[in-house]
């Protein structure tokens, strides 16, 4: 476990009392990197919030157990069944025999194509449902933007930490602990880019109806916002992020990269590979 002074991927860092982000990130050329974070709440009844990506399963499990003993984990809150969130779910369930899985009917069904989730260990959390985790009440909330219909964010009313899932996703030039480390331009551009990537349907939204949804989410009054695909947000980035979110219905859709872009990247990659050296004789 580390502080923000020594930020490294897959080394949990504290973002609020008893609350830790497990940071990970993927390179996303040519736009930088995208975080693939998850979170752990180490309260009276510890909670895993999402379960990381399968590509780094062993390291993710090691990181999680550096924060909390798996036998102490009481809840696994699965925001939705996308692989970047549910990637290590079965491994986490196996390691945490005392944990109840907080999820939705539809998530379980969507995972059934590949995974049989033990239904007797599940508890459904629909929009607005709360869970008493001993020393805190956790609220499940559908976030304004999502790329999977089952998505639920999680708000901890004790620390005022909000796990926003895929809302507030942003590309970053390099992985970092806090959005305060981004330039104002990168912060603005990243919010508008990430929002349109996650939810290209934002361009179809009725701005007034969307405003009501954003306002409802903002009224949680989160002091700290962590998400899978963003560094941690605090004031003054939080109100700025909400303002940018409100603009999305009016922003022209992002133009996807095309085959011409891919051809150009491949040509560039090939031209930068040194020519094959002749093999030494006798090999
Ligand atoms: Fe997702
Ligand atoms: Fe995601």
UniProtKB/TrEMBL annotation:
Source organism superkingdom: Bacteria
SUPFAM superfamilies tied to this protein: Metallo-hydrolase/oxidoreductase
UniProt-listed InterPro entries: Metallo-B-lactamas (IPR001279), RibonucZ/Hydroxyglut_hydro (IPR036866)
Domain Metallo-beta-lactamase: residue ranges: 35-204
Annotated PANTHER family: ANAEROBIC NITRIC OXIDE REDUCTASE FLAVORUBREDOXIN
UniProt name for this protein: Metallo-beta-lactamase superfamily protein
């Amino acid at each position: 476990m580390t502080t923000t002074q020594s930020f490294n991927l897959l080394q949990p860092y504290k973002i609020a009392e008893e609350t830790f982000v497990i940071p990970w990130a993927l390179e996303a050329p040519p736009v930088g990197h995208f975080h693939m974070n998850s979170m752990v709440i180490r309260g009276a009844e510890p909670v895993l919030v999402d379960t990381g990506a399968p590509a780094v399963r062993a390291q993710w499990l090691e990181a999680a157990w550096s924060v909390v003993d798996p036998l102490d984990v009481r809840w696994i809150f699965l925001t939705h069944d996308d692989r970047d969130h549910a990637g290590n779910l079965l491994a986490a369930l196996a390691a945490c025999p005392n944990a109840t899985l907080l999820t939705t009917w539809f998530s379980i069904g969507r995972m059934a194509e590949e995974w049989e989730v033990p239904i007797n260990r599940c508890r459904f959390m629909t929009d607005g449902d709360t869970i008493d985790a001993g020393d805190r009440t956790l609220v499940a909330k559908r976030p304004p933007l999502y790329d999977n219909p089952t998505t639920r964010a999680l708000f901890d009313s004790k620390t005022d930490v909000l796990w926003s899932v895929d809302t507030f996703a942003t590309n970053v030039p390099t992985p970092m602990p806090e959005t305060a480390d981004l330039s104002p331009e990168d912060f603005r551009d990243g919010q508008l880019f990430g929002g349109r990537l996650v939810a290209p349907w934002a361009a179809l939204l009725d701005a007034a109806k969307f405003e009501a949804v954003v306002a409802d989410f903002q009224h949680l009054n989160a002091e700290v916002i962590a998400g899978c695909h963003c560094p941690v947000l605090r004031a003054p980035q939080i109100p700025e992020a909400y303002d940018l979110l409100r603009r999305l219905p009016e922003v022209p859709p992002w133009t996807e990269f095309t085959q011409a872009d891919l051809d150009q990247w491949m040509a560039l990659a090939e031209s930068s590979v040194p020519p094959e050296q002749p093999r030494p004789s006798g090999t």
